Amino acid sequence: MANDTKERILAAALEMFSQNGYAGTNIRELSASLGLVKSGVYKHFESKEAIWNALLNQMIAYYGAHFGSPEHLPPVPDSLEGLVTMTMQMVKFTVHDEKVIMTRKLLTLEQFRDVRARELATKHFLTGLTDMFTHIFAGMMEQGLLRRDDPAMLAFAYTAPISALIHLCDREPEKTEKAIAQIEAFSRHFVKVYGSLS
Prior knowledge:
CATH class of the largest domain: Mainly Alpha
Radius of gyration: 19 Å
Low-confidence stretches: none
Number of domains: 2
CATH topology of the largest domain: Tetracycline Repressor, domain 2
Helix content: over 70%
Distance between the termini: 60 Å
Structural class: mainly alpha
């Protein structure tokens, strides 16, 4: 029961932080949204900062389990079509999963206030994706599927426009389907240009 309450607090905190930011969220409103009194929240978390840190820990674990992490890299595709399929699965997950959407919004809001949020924003919006696709492209080059090039530069060139279009989906959700179609067209163009001729 205690764990259920903790999970409910974290879920409500994610929603409120992603809408109002850390400073714009107070424990009284958070507890009221759950039908609790403030002491009911403080029974599980000693402070708003403790809720914040627990939420970031939960988001890291959730993202790693569902999307990938340095410790949990996705398998290297065994075909160019496999790269497109894997990319689109990742994209559809990240633009449709409510928890991930709220996490992105929260990190976007809080990256200028909180050092940990800034580091996570850099990792999830830039370096983590680049590192993941550096590994994928190096493996595909080894298999002879992609022509030889600097896999890190190729990963940066591949992930930057995809990441930009994902952020567009957050800002203008009505453009999500068009953005997904653009990402698929870009992925297919990429494999046409960089697919091995051998």
